[in-house]
Structures are given as structure tokens and as C-alpha cells.
Amino acid sequence: MATAPRPTGDQRFKDARTAKIAELITDTITAQGLYLEEIELVANGSTTTLKLSVDLLTGTEQVDLDTIAELSQAISARFDEDDVLPELERYDLEVSTPGATRPLTTQRHFERNLGRLLEITQTGHSPILARLQSIEDGAITVVEQKPSPKKGMPVKYGDPARINLSAIDQARVQVEFSHTQ
Known about the structure:
Blueprint: H1 16-31, E1 34-44, E2 47-56, H2 65-82, E3 90-96, H3 107-111, E4 117-122, E5 128-136, E6 139-146, E7 156-164, E8 168-173
Parallel strand pairs: 2-3
Antiparallel strand pairs: 1-2, 4-5, 4-8, 5-6, 6-7
Protein name: Ribosome maturation factor RimP
Function: Required for maturation of 30S ribosomal subunits.
Keywords: Cytoplasm, Ribosome biogenesis
């Protein structure tokens, strides 16, 4: 992608401390079937908050709260074993997922959102709303959702289009609400 608003690859770990923490806890995270997206250390007076962002490696399901709670306990136990942050007297651990509207910056992010409605901005173009149909070979296939000509009329869809990931400046999932009558 042209501009990555979130860290990717090894840049997820901004300094030697976060890289060391990642090294110590990655096995614990992968044992839960999860992927470590990002680590952030935030100083709050005498306490430091260690923020971990995790996600499922594959599929389109969401990480449930029980899994987050189990992972938090496992990571806390791991920290107690190795005294990961000895220079900090107190720290808070926050484990969460990246959230529904996080920027999609890697092929894995797009794979995790197959079938969802995305807002996509390509280099030199206006943003579009499109349903993600597939991803392969560094490109996505989407069907653009055209605005209704009049309120109450059904949404129109364009033909499938292929977009190279390198041509995408920004992409986010659009949260859809459905209702039953």
C-alpha cells in the first residue's frame, strides 16, 4: 500500500523494549491462535500502560472476550516468570483487538475482511464504497456500491474490479447495521 497508517512487519515494535516484549510473548499469543499486531508502551505518571493489539491470524471471525481474558492471564503469568519490565515499578496491561474500523494495511488485513463493505481510496481517485470479494497475488477484487438515486430505492452495484494493494492509499471497513422487522 502506498501509505501505511499503522505499523506493519517488524515496524510494529518501535524500540528495543517493545521488540524484547514481543519476543517473550509471541509464543504465548500464537498458542492462543492469535497474531500480535502491535505493542505500545504509554507512560502515565508513575505507571506505564503496556498496550497489546492482537487478532486472529486467518478467517473472518472476531476474537471473543473470553479469549482476550485468557490471553491477558497467560501474558501476565509470562511477565511474572521473566520480570519483563524490571525498570517499571508498576504497569497496567491492556490487551485488545485492532477494532472494526482500523486501517487495512496488509494483505492479511484484507483477507480477514472478505465479504465486508470497505471504503477504499486509491492514489489519485475519490474514495469508493465496495464489497470485498477476493484477494490474491497482491490485489483485491471488489464490487463498488453506487449511491441510491433516490431515498428508499435499492443500492446499485458496479461490475467487479481488481485493485492492486500498492495502488491503495487507505482502506477501512465500513460498519454495517442491519435490522429486522
